[in-house]
Design brief:
Strand content: 25-35%
Largest sheet: 6 strands, mixed
Distance between the termini: 12 Å
Low-confidence stretches: none
Number of helices: 6
Radius of gyration: 18 Å
Helix content: 10-25%
Strand order of the largest sheet: 5-4-3-2-1-14
Mean pLDDT: 92
Order of helices and strands: EHEHEEEHEEHEHEEEEEEH
Number of domains: 1
């Protein structure tokens, strides 16, 4: 289950320059994947008018949502969506992290992709903890291992929506070298206070950067909560959005993470001999 990498003496040793991040909070239209892709591109265009960025992150299944009554209809769309996202990445010379529902050897996966600035697939992660309350576990096959996404700057640990509720996953990824945790999500409005608290908790307890990108608007009769944000290792918001569609930018400074871990060395001083491997 754990990533294969082991934590170096200094997980920040390979991250020198600030990472410019854009979060894109989209209002998905269920049944209109082409319109959702176009809207994501329009938001990214607007965000980049303020200057270049290194990474853009989109909500969970931003193009299709979860039409559980007709998931088979998504089959022909998988390759098209990935091709469209690769083109968007190339056009703007920006890394993109997004998720899509994808058929793989007869099983449907909730898959998170990392595209580099040339549109190449640099990594992927299949959601390992599925949300049984919605029926996700009955329609989608769980992944079997955690992954790390390697960039020219920080190492990124990807997790998806429901997995925010499992602090063990975040700790395993940071122990393996992740300096940034990314959570694409489809989180409802009536539980949005939990989303906000948990994002801050994951940042504070792991003393790392956390990027949470949620959808907004209505999905299958349920109001989504928005409140996408980037949280610093100290627990303060570097940028955040409210309930409506939009974008925001944040600069992730590696020295800030180092300062926090030196100021309050809780991460380093954890008694791992008391909790096992």
């Amino acid at each position: 289950m754990r990533p294969t990498s082991t934590m170096s003496a200094d997980p920040l040793s390979g991250w020198k320059d600030p990472l410019e991040v854009i979060i894109l909070q989209t209002a998905m239209q269920v049944g209109s994947p082409e319109a959702n892709i176009e809207r994501a591109g329009t938001l990214l265009d607007a965000a980049l008018e303020g200057g270049r960025a290194d990474l853009a992150v989109l909500p969970e299944a931003f193009a299709t949502g979860f039409p559980f009554d007709d998931l088979s209809s998504l089959g022909p769309f998988h390759e098209h969506l990935r091709s469209a996202m690769e083109g968007l990445s190339r056009r703007h010379s920006i890394d993109i992290i997004y998720t899509q529902l994808e058929s793989d050897r007869g099983a449907l996966r909730n898959r998170c992709y990392h595209l580099d600035s040339r549109g190449n697939v640099e990594g992927s992660y299949d959601k390992t903890h599925l949300f049984s309350r919605s029926g996700e576990d009955r329609a989608i096959a769980a992944g079997g291992t955690l992954k790390l996404f390697r960039t020219a700057g920080p190492i990124i640990g990807p997790l998806i929506c429901y997995e925010l509720r499992f602090p063990e996953l975040a700790r395993d990824l940071t122990r393996a070298g992740a300096s940034v945790l990314v959570y694409p999500a489809e989180w409802p409005e009536h539980r949005i206070f939990q989303w906000e608290h948990l994002l801050h908790a994951r940042a504070i307890e792991n003393q790392c950067f956390v990027i949470g990108v949620n959808t907004c608007g209505n999905h299958s009769g349920m109001r989504m909560g928005g409140r996408s944000m980037v949280v610093s290792p100290y627990g303060d918001d570097l940028c955040s959005l409210k309930a409506d569609e939009g974008w925001a930018r944040a600069k992730l400074e590696p020295n800030r993470m180092r300062e926090v871990r030196e100021m309050i060395p809780a991460y380093r001083e954890l008694r791992r001999d008391l909790i096992g491997p």
